[in-house]
Amino acid sequence: MATAYAPHFIRSENVAADVTTSSSPSPVTMVQDELKKIAAYKAVEFVESGMVVGLGTGSTAKHAVDRIGELIQQGILTDIIGIPTSIKTQEQALSVNIPLSDLETHPVIDLAIDGADEVDPDLNLVKGRGGSLLREKMIEFASKRFVVIVDESKLVDHIGGSGLAMPVEVVPFCWKFTAQRLELLFEEADCVAKLRICPKTGDPFVTDNSNYTIDLYFKKSIGDLKAAGDAILRLPGVVEHGMFVDMATTVIIAGDGGVTVKNKS
Ligand SMILES: O=C(CO)[C@H](O)[C@H](O)COP(=O)(O)O
């Protein structure tokens, strides 16, 4: 399938085998949004007619949703059913005429495409800085293939390594108590827990599921990700956390040096 943003070259890596094929530098330093678009368009090449497709949320996933809509409009993709991961994506998908359904009607998704806030070398992710982690996790967990699209600024040595937020969705009831328990849980990682606030209103940010988000900031490594995730989920008041461990099957990274496709083996 021809794409308007086909990159000059694609580097392919299998994470376990660490196999690298062709590479050559791009002459142009591309701005971040162009890189996001390149990654998104590459991911949409995996979409085939008749598929049920999980539609991610955020500025990178938005390009993928637009592209799917464009290919439907051109008659290149037919019989696509989209499962949106947020109300915002639902609205966007409807605006570009992607037929939509939900997880209850379509519990198995062929392919999900979504952005991420952090990607570690094992393709573990942080997601949810855009506020949609719960629906994203439910839909991406139900997907046979989960393709993550990022520009290279999202790559980290370890989860939490960006120094930016690792979001946790919590029920509003006694959220300060839950925030304290989260800080205590990660005392050794020097964790600070902050309620996410809407910059425009100064009110707590409310998710599509009527919950709050507590953003965790770590000064030190949180260690074993699965153990950390399980411990978070054991706290009453927590709904879900933004670590997506062992969920991505493919990560497409667009950078100044080209596009790298990493597959989890
Ligand atoms: O997890 C998300 C939303 O909940 C987004 O995928 C993540 O925040 C990346 O967003 P962007 O593509 O805008 O950088």
Automatic annotation (TrEMBL):
CDD domains: RPI_A
Isomerase in keyword set: yes
Catalytic activity: aldehydo-D-ribose 5-phosphate = D-ribulose 5-phosphate
Keywords: Isomerase
One Pfam short name: Rib_5-P_isom_A
Protein's UniProt keywords contain Isomerase: yes
Example GO BP: pentose-phosphate shunt, non-oxidative branch
SUPFAM superfamilies: D-ribose-5-phosphate isomerase (RpiA), lid domain (SSF75445), NagB/RpiA/CoA transferase-like (SSF100950)
Enzyme Commission code: 5.3.1.6
Listed GO MF terms: ribose-5-phosphate isomerase activity
Pathway: Carbohydrate degradation; pentose phosphate pathway; D-ribose 5-phosphate from D-ribulose 5-phosphate (non-oxidative stage): step 1/1
Signal peptide extent: none
Family indicated by similarity: Belongs to the ribose 5-phosphate isomerase family.
The name this protein goes by in its record: ribose-5-phosphate isomerase
Lineage per the UniProt record: Eukaryota, Viridiplantae, Streptophyta, Embryophyta, Tracheophyta
